[in-house]
Automatic annotation (TrEMBL):
Protein keywords: ATP-binding, Fatty acid metabolism, Ligase, Lipid metabolism, Magnesium, Metal-binding, Mitochondrion, Nucleotide-binding, Transit peptide
GO molecular function: ATP binding; fatty-acyl-CoA synthase activity; medium-chain fatty acid-CoA ligase activity; metal ion binding
Cofactor names: Mn(2+); Mg(2+)
Cross-referenced SUPFAM superfamilies: Acetyl-CoA synthetase-like
Catalytic activity: a medium-chain fatty acid + ATP + CoA = a medium-chain fatty acyl-CoA + AMP + diphosphate
PROSITE patterns: AMP_BINDING (PS00455)
Gene: LOC114051902
Limits of the AMP-dependent synthetase/ligase domain: 79-435
Name this protein carries in UniProt: medium-chain acyl-CoA ligase
Organism: Vombatus ursinus
Enzyme class: ligase
Length: 581
């Protein structure tokens, strides 16, 4: 009876949002519904074409609309930086430039369909040219944050067997230091105004490349992109996505979440390298013909964000809760945002008081979204829907998020359980195809008819979902997902560290920060703890991406362990929570 009530509640929600269709997936159709050349390209929530390429099926459509005068005269990509530089490209210009980028990758570099390209670039226009160029050529792109160290880059190049790397002048030396250990790496492309020995000059090659390129017709099960996702044990996992991820952005239910139009200017404040950046700075705005706004800030500056919202005609902003927290440290009400209509947050839940402060200062509510590298967007509070502060909203079709127990049974409202997505009998469009070279992990992520997200949650009587935390030990610091083993392995290389355990510690600004409990080797026990803390923090920054360093370090005589010798992080987490009460 409780399950029936739960189903009826959800169906009631879909009735109030008629574009969502029914709760459970219908069998996939082989062909998409046709659309006229004047309307937005669109597929049904449960319709899957045999072939799909975002570059030709969506971006080139909007280029045609521009030629016919049927799109608002806005740029497709509007890029600025702190120096006053500005780039504006419409879809026709993006089309030509990305075709040139595809020719650089294939004709000049000799890459072939299915080859893997590691892309480690900051928020510069070339990042989007390379990304879409890979789509046109059928190359698999692997985004990476510019905070990666040589060690991180080595792991990504070796594990992915990438044939090409694209980066800037800052990271070129790090790539060079490990390239000899990457036998599959053939091509190094540099995005810079300067030349570098052993590297091809992307900008020069782009100018010389032809604008004529036949976009490949990618099959729906071909690989399109791979994200690296942190785990609690071992190195980051490789999460494989097909063109379904891009198609997902074109579905009616996805479009209904933010209700963007071709006259919108959307700004995603997220670092490249993560799935949110790809979704919100490219796929979702461009599928509707909207403008993607990019501000390249070498260093995060809350005041710059506030001034940018005041100066430019931005209508929608997507940012992590930590960004909103930092903005609220300033007098937000003293700024005027004349065009801003919609604000979105994802990565963790906002506190109710933060929600109220933002709304009081701007007059705008913050709409929560939820997703992960494996799934993209799965839950949200759609624009115009009632907001329950602290809830991540409802599951967005074709995803069906349920709360289940350890046996895979659906739990009634109000009971905590595992957040899980129904994948049988039909796997929803946009789900990852698996963990690369890790079938055991792929299999272990499933339980009965469900994919297990690794998060705990509950659902209320109205069908709203509530995120309660991770079932594993992943740390979510300012929107960055950090596996404790990555930090522990870095600490282990310092001679002062006998052993360590890393957990997330609550932080009012960042949500969580990395905290390390360290057992010292005998020769370092008499050292000044403050100086040693700083030394260990700098050591981790040197070994791995700086955002992973422990902001808190506590020296302890021993770590709590199970009878088999495993570290009991849960005990450390409980003690840490008590301290923060």
């Amino acid at each position: 009876m409780q399950l029936l009530m739960r189903s009826q509640v959800l169906r009631g929600l879909w009735v109030s949002w008629p574009i969502y269709g029914s709760l459970h997936p219908h069998p996939r159709h082989l062909l998409a519904r046709p659309f006229s050349r004047t309307e937005t390209p669109q597929w049904g929530d449960y319709e899957i074409p045999k072939e799909f390429n975002f570059a030709s099926d969506v971006m080139d459509h909007w280029a045609r609309m521009e030629k016919e005068g049927k799109r608002d005269p806005l740029p497709a990509l509007w890029w600025v930086n702190d120096k006053g530089d500005e780039v504006k490209w419409n879809f026709q210009e993006l089309g030509d430039l990305t075709r040139q980028a595809a020719n650089v990758l294939t004709e000049t570099c000799g890459l072939q369909r299915g080859d893997r390209v590691v892309v480690i670039l900051p928020r510069i226009p070339d990042l989007w040219l390379v990304t879409v160029g890979c789509m046109r050529a059928g190359l698999v792109f692997l985004p990476g944050t510019i905070q990666l160290t040589a060690r991180d880059i080595l792991y990504r190049l070796q594990s992915s067997k990438a044939e090409c790397v694209v980066t800037n002048e800052t990271l070129a030396p790090a790539v060079d230091s490990v390239a000899s250990d990457c036998p599959r790496l053939k091509i190094k492309l540099l995005v810079s105004e300067n030349n570098h020995d052993g590297w091809l000059d992307f900008k020069t090659l782009l100018k010389a490349a032809s604008v004529d390129h036949a976009c490949v017709k990618t099959k729906m099960q071909e690989p399109m992109t791979i994200f690296f996702s942190s785990g609690t044990t071992g190195p980051p996992k490789m999460v494989m996505h097909t063109p379904e991820l891009a198609l997902r952005s074109c579905l009616p239910s996805t479009r209904q979440v933010k209700k963007l139009t071709s006259s919108d200017v959307s700004w995603c404040v997220s670092d490249p390298g993560w799935i949110l950046s790809l979704l919100e700075s490219a796929l979702e705005p461009w599928n509707i013909g909207a403008c993607s706004f990019i501000h390249h800030m070498p260093q995060f500056n809350p005041e710059t964000i506030l001034k940018t919202l005041s100066r430019y005609p931005i209508t929608c902003m997507i940012a992590a809760p930590s960004v909103y927290r930092m903005l609220l440290q300033f007098d937000v009400s003293s700024y005027k945002f004349p065009t801003l209509k919609h604000t979105v947050s994802g990565g963790e839940t906002l506190l109710p008081e933060e929600f109220e402060k933002w709304k009081k200062a701007t007059g705008l509510a913050i709409h929560e979204v939820y997703g992960q590298s494996e799934t993209g967007l799965t839950c949200a509070v759609p624009r115009g829907m009632k907001i329950k502060k602290g809830s991540i909203g409802i599951s967005i079709p074709p995803f069906d998020m349920q709360i289940i127990d350890e046996k895979g049974n659906i739990l009634p409202p109000g009971i905590e359980g595992d957040m899980a997505i129904r994948i049988k009998p039909t796997r929803p469009t946009g789900m990852f195809s698996g963990y690369v070279d890790n079938p055991e992990k792929t299999l272990s992520s499933e339980r009965g008819d469900f994919y297990i997200t690794g998060d705990r949650g509950s659902v209320d009587e109205d069908g709203y979902l509530w995120f309660l935390g991770r079932t594993d030990d992943i740390i979510n610091a300012s929107g960055y997902r950090i596996g404790p083993s990555e930090v522990e392995n870095a600490l282990a290389e310092h001679p002062a560290v006998a052993e360590s355990a890393v957990i997330g510690s609550q932080d009012p600004l960042r949500g969580e920060v990395v905290k390390a409990f360290v057992v010292l080797t005998p020769e370092f026990r008499s050292h000044d703890p403050d100086q040693l803390t700083r030394e260990l923090q700098q050591h981790v920054k040197n070994i791995t991406a700086p955002y992973k360093y422990p902001r808190k370090v506590e020296f302890v005589p021993a770590l709590p362990k199970t009878i088999t010798g495993k570290i009991k992080r849960s005990e450390l987490q409980k003690n840490e929570k008590r301290r923060n009460l």
